[in-house]
Predict the 3D structure of the following.
Amino acid sequence: MIYFMNGQFTDQEGCTISIDDRGYYFGDGVYEVVKVYNGELYTAEEHFNRLVESAEKVKMVLPYSKEELIGIASELVKANQIETGHIYIQATRGVSPRTHQFPEIPVTPVVTAYAINNPRPLKNIEEGVRVKIVDDVRWLRCDIKSLNLLGNVLAKQEAFEAGCAEALFVRDGIVMEGSSSNVFGIKNGTVYTHPATNLILNGITRRVVMKLCEELAIPFVEKEFTPIEALSMDEFFLTSTTAEITPIVSIDGHPIGNGQPGTVTKQLQEAFARQIPVPVKAN
Ligand code: PDD
């Protein structure tokens, strides 16, 4: 496997992280996950725009332009012969003896990335998943795709231990998002999701779903809703780069609708599948 580490394409032995890396000490950095379909990066512009925005929000200057980052990602896809999979890229503030404040002598962010083959999660996409409500104890800047994911990690683990695929974050009586996904409810044909505030990550797949709703003339409303309202939705689903559009069939053991993936969700899944790069069939 070929990795990217500070300007080099190298094998794992070539990737050495300093003990003084601020990512290691503080989770002081930002990241992205970009899907690859048929050897092509999907919505790369949107992901790398968000990486640059996340870096700006934490006052980090990335050592590469957006175009260079897309070039690095494309090179990794090629070098590792990725067909269906994803690339992971992160940038930490850099290497410096541990102090909470930024290093006095400026350091260059450490950029690392890898590409991996990873099939589409078709079973979950077809059958749906169960979710568990978890208290959202994360910080108030969930709009930043930060390496600091302890709140997300603990929530996902709690969900897994309860036999669920995802945690449904609730803060102050409002449904926010999943631990690594955005969530949507459908009531009487209208799709509802939490507005893109500082309290959720504005997912790239979320934005794709908004666009698909517009194209399919499905009403879409960014509006807060409660867990009780969530339980009375006709359909529910989550989105992320790797999960695509995955139906949610139960919340805390209560079935949503008839406990099966719903028709509007399926319509959106079909529309999603139509716009991803598909393999060119051999004659
Ligand atoms: N997670 N909300 C959170 C908290 C996330 O971590 C993610 C993505 C999303 C969905 O964003 P997008 O559609 O851009 O993938 C929403 C990635 C996949 C991860 O951490 O692995």
User: Anything to note?
Assistant: DSSP finds eight helices and 15 strands in the chain. The longest helix spans residues 44-57. The mean pLDDT is 97.
